[in-house]
Amino acid sequence: VKISGLHICNSPVPPLLQTLQRYLTALEPLLPPEELEHTRGIVQKFGCPGGLGENLQRELIKRAKHSHNWISDWWVQWAYLECRQPLAVHSNPAISLPKRDFTDWRGQLVFASKLIAGVLDFKAQVDSGRLGVEYMRGQPLCMELFPQLFSSCRIPGPKHDHVIHYGRPRRGPAHITVVRNYQFFQLDVYNSDGTPLTESQIHAQLLRIRSQSWKTDKQPMGILTSEHRHTWGQAYTRLLRDKINKESVRLIEKSIFTLCLDSPVMRISDEKYSSRMAAQILHGGGTFSNSGNRWFDKTLQFVVGEDGSWGLLYEHATAEGPPIATLLDHVLDYCKKPDRMRAPLIPLPMPKKLYFYINSEIKWDLEMAKQNLDIWMFLDIMALRFGKDFVKLLKLSPNSFIQVAIQLAYYREAKVQLLREAVDAYSILTEQSLMGQGIDRHLLGLKLQAIEEGLSVPRIFMDTAYGLATHWKLRTGQVPANTDSVMCFGPLVPDGYAVCYNPQQDHVHFSITAFNCCEETNAEKLALTLERSLHDLQELFQPTV
């Protein structure tokens, strides 16, 4: 099971023998006895006194003394920037938020204006240092992530990507990108004196953008960013050869964030609304829908539809769940307040439309990107809601209980004592991870340390057991928010599932995704099994409540 990670400040390197023993314990349910014994011999040789593991451990400890977090840079590079899978679905998480009370483009633009103002208000807190330190189970989370949310973008490369940050508290970019009907606009959101535009000023500018973006026969340039990273990296190089294209791309990359004003989508039944809207935020619905209204490399993309749907899509190399949840909580609180500021009588410059020159090569790149997107975007997404009051009555950790329920849905484990032990074990593993004692990061660090020293990859990492243990068939994540939002992302492997959950006061929201091109997986079936598993667990404890 792969659980989304967090950046914890100043975590020490775990003891080598502790990690190796926990690694063997984790392998016990995965390997038959003879294979486990074979792996045990490899692990013991790696960790013996004076052995390779001890030497690599010594270098990791040196690294930790000279860095704020000894694993975070490596982790971002290995887990995200070197990954060649498309960002859409495979990497970028999406959050679909509760539907707003508007049903046309007029309400869309009014709400989008308030949303923009709310994000700028949050940014002002980050820039001024007024944002308080966030904690999880008593551990301080790394606050360095917050400034990086704004004016940042992932840049594709042939072998690996990199992230560029343009944001500076005083002299950073002063514009956002707005995209409607596949057309991108630069919208300055600060007055000449540095004050942010009021909601009514922003609304007036969005009306101007709407009046300039009627045509829908434009090429959906944003779909290029949905490609395999190597393919997009090559197309990116070709695209930037033209001066006009380079200027337009740079303005998108430098923008504080992107606002996607989506066109209406086909009406569906209420019971399927949550799943459909989550898919819209995640990938835009395909080449004939709103996928051209995305720039998947951008760190923050807020999506607002005409039917009251809205949400956020973010790029994972820069943004993590907890900072995103804090940002959304602030925006939601801001949206409850009336706009009391009167717009100054100052003429505003017309939002700048971004143009692209499309030659035959770029047109071919676009056609290939369209075809590929429509092939792999067929991701089944199921939303599920389950009450959680009974978990509190049992005095069990809700997060650990949910994780065990997800695995029960996968393996159908069903005994009270085993359940209690599993929940307790997961709670301990969570605490260890929050303290920087997780085994996956430590093992990765040892592997990368060997590579950095120019050594051959140690045998422990070439062992079949390590490959099996890191083939994450279950990608899970808890993103607690103060609203009934549905967060989703795609599986890490073709034959896997992704399960994200948002615990509320008296219920839990789940989203389950699986690629429908794989015969072994079925999101709807796992959702039904998960719901049955939760009920089964509830019944197991019912006599003791």
UniProtKB/TrEMBL annotation:
Family classification: Belongs to the carnitine/choline acetyltransferase family.
Taxonomic superkingdom: Eukaryota
Acyltransferase listed as a keyword: yes
SUPFAM superfamilies (alphabetical): CoA-dependent acyltransferases
Signal peptide boundaries: none
One BP term from GO: carnitine metabolic process, CoA-linked
Domain spans labelled Choline/carnitine acyltransferase: 12-413
GO cellular component, one term: peroxisome
Protein name: Carnitine O-acetyltransferase-like
Biological classification of the source: Eukaryota, Metazoa, Chordata, Craniata, Vertebrata
